[in-house]
TrEMBL record:
This is Mos1 transposase HTH domain-containing protein. Residues 36-56, 150-179 are annotated as: Disordered. It comes from Scylla paramamosain. GO terms for molecular function: nucleic acid binding.
Amino acid sequence: GKNAVRSTGYAAKVYGDETMSRSRVFEWCKRFKEGREDVEDDPRSGRPSTSRNEANVERVKQMVRDDRRLTVRKIADELGMNHNSVWKIITEDLGMRKVCAKMVPRLLNDDQKGRRMQVCQDILERLETEPDLLRRVITGDESWVFEYDPETKRQSLQWKSPASPRPKKARQSRSSFKV
């Protein structure tokens, strides 16, 4: 009994996730002391879970695609499924995880990105012919930059599959320093 309990730390290193918890080791030791000889699980009442079938995986997948910010509880309630089953479908069957939006200085559309790229390329070309170009740049006075962030980190959580890009949101709260 005591040796089995002491070895759970070593067993966890050897067997990883398959290791029995410390409390389960105590429970099984007690059962064997009381005369139990069988190591099979006791029969349980109730029917086996059928929530993780193809149809339910597809239903959950469609709900998550329609709204990536849905919570597991909301999906479970709407589909009339067990919370744990929905969690396993999302994380194991669909390989998704919930991530927060990455904070970026500003979200730009394709036209704005293109214009910024062109300006940078123009500057690089001018630097080749005018190496002292940046020494002649005049800057203005300091000014406060205001930003506003209406969404908290938790509110930005959404489901992401391994292949999809991480969601982004623009920083929009008042900065704590002058620029």
